[in-house]
Design brief:
This protein has seven helices and three strands; from the N terminus they run βααββααααα. By secondary structure, it is mainly alpha-helical.
């Protein structure tokens, strides 16, 4: 159920969550889901938008990534390499959405006892086949609007 809840500003109503759980083979009532969400919001940083009905549930936009089970070293390495080499190719909104995962990947690689595997991103380089082009100067606010 926790994996189905989106990050803010998106939100998920209890009715929609019930339909998704039923599609996954879980038969529960809306009252049970609501009660479980209330209980889980004590343990996890879940937010309930109760300004209007139906109430919507979401994870905080800037909150830590909750990955059940935890991120394995191979996944962490993949995220770090993607951050390093695809940063100029991905839209800024995608990079912002991926920031908590990139931070979690850095934490996983930093906590590894294997210095070789953890330092892999420092040992790999991508060299373009052609001449590297210089990006033009522009205001960051304009780029955000364009993306």
């Amino acid at each position: 159920m926790l994996r189905l809840i989106p990050r803010a500003p998106q939100k998920l109503t209890v009715g929609t969550l019930k339909k998704k759980l039923e599609a996954d083979g879980f038969e529960v009532s809306e009252c049970t889901i609501q009660r479980d969400l209330q209980s889980l919001s004590v343990l996890f940083p879940l937010s309930c938008d109760d300004r209007n009905r139906p109430y919507g549930w979401c994870w905080p936009r800037e909150g830590r990534v909750l990955d059940i089970p935890g991120m394995d070293p191979q996944t962490a390495l993949t995220f770090k390499l993607a951050e390093t080499f695809l940063q100029s190719l991905m839209p800024r909104s995608t990079l912002a959405a991926m920031a908590p995962y990139m931070e979690a990947a850095g934490n996983v690689l930093g906590a590894l006892g294997e210095p070789g595997f953890a330092r892999w991103p420092d040992k790999v380089r991508v060299i373009p086949r052609g001449q590297r082009l210089l990006s033009p100067d522009f205001k960051p606010e304009v780029l955000e609007v364009v993306y």
